């Protein structure tokens, strides 16, 4: 329902679920999860030892984490609006644009599955945030830099969500999708800040399973891309609406 004026309805729910889950998978990816503790320490102006010895989350840790998430969310929302604007410009070519976006998302999935590697997604493009540790402004700037520069982990999944947002051809709906992705990535980061170091052991326990997480990410992207190429993603949306009529009141 690309021409709908509704910001949120049942046809958007599957895409929102994919975006939310994609954000969680991005957080659990091999080059995001391991850097969470040192990022929290740096942004809060603490050492790793001080952070590990704390009982309960100091206020500066929570503040830093919140502003970091705000920074990366700012970038994601702007990207969502830009992708949707592109989709509106290409609205007359939607019949081939949606399958093309699905094909690109499938390629991202194959990248995660290791069937082949896309070179541009294998290089990190980090933007230095400067020596601003220990301040809310520094955490916000670091969040902006993280969202712009951490392409190996965020690139394929974020690109897939942007592709879906572009097919929405609605600024509001595309922005909602990227907001869902930001929630999926940001909430685990805030939880890690709130319950560190109790979650430290849990995070360490996930590291041996990074390969499985990448495989799950690849399968998710490949499936979503296939559904878009075959036109079944929209069909899934309307199936949900017919199966669960109560969803029709959403929006």
UniProtKB/TrEMBL annotation:
It is found in: Membrane. Keywords: Cytochrome c-type biogenesis, Membrane, Transmembrane, Transmembrane helix. One of its GO terms (cellular component) is membrane. It comes from Rubellimicrobium thermophilum DSM 16684. Pfam families: DsbD_TM. This is Cytochrome c biogenesis protein. GO terms for biological process: cytochrome complex assembly. The chain crosses the membrane at residues 12-40, 61-84, 96-116, 137-166, 178-199, 219-241. It is a multi-pass membrane protein. PANTHER family: CYTOCHROME C-TYPE BIOGENESIS PROTEIN HI_1454-RELATED (PTHR31272). Residues 16-228 form the Cytochrome C biogenesis protein transmembrane domain. The lineage of its organism: Bacteria, Pseudomonadati, Pseudomonadota, Alphaproteobacteria, Rhodobacterales. Belongs to the DsbD family.
């Amino acid at each position: 329902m690309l021409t709908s004026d509704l910001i949120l309805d049942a046809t958007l729910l599957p895409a929102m679920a994919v975006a939310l889950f994609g954000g969680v998978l991005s957080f659990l990816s091999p080059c995001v999860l391991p850097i969470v503790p040192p990022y929290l320490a740096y942004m809060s102006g603490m050492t790793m030892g001080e952070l590990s010895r704390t009982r309960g989350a100091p206020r500066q840790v929570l503040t830093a984490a919140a502003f970091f998430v705000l920074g990366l969310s700012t970038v994601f929302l702007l990207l969502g609006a830009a992708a949707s604007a592109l989709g509106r410009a290409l609205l007359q070519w939607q019949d081939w644009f949606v399958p093309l976006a699905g094909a690109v998302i499938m390629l991202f999935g194959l990248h995660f599955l290791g069937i082949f590697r896309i070179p541009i997604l294998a290089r990190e493009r980090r933007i230095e945030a400067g020596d601003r540790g220990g301040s809310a402004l520094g955490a916000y700037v670091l969040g902006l830099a993280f969202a712009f520069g951490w392409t190996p982990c965020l690139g394929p999944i974020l690109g897939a969500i942007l592709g879906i947002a572009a097919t929405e051809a609605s600024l509001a709906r595309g922005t909602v999708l990227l907001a869902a992705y930001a929630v999926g990535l940001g909430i685990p980061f805030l939880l890690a800040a709130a319950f560190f170091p109790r979650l430290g052991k849990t995070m360490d326990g996930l590291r041996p399973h990074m390969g499985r997480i990448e495989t799950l990410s690849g399968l998710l992207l490949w499936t979503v891309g296939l559904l878009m190429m075959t036109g079944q993603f929209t069909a899934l949306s309307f199936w949900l609406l017919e199966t669960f009529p109560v969803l029709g009141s959403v929006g």
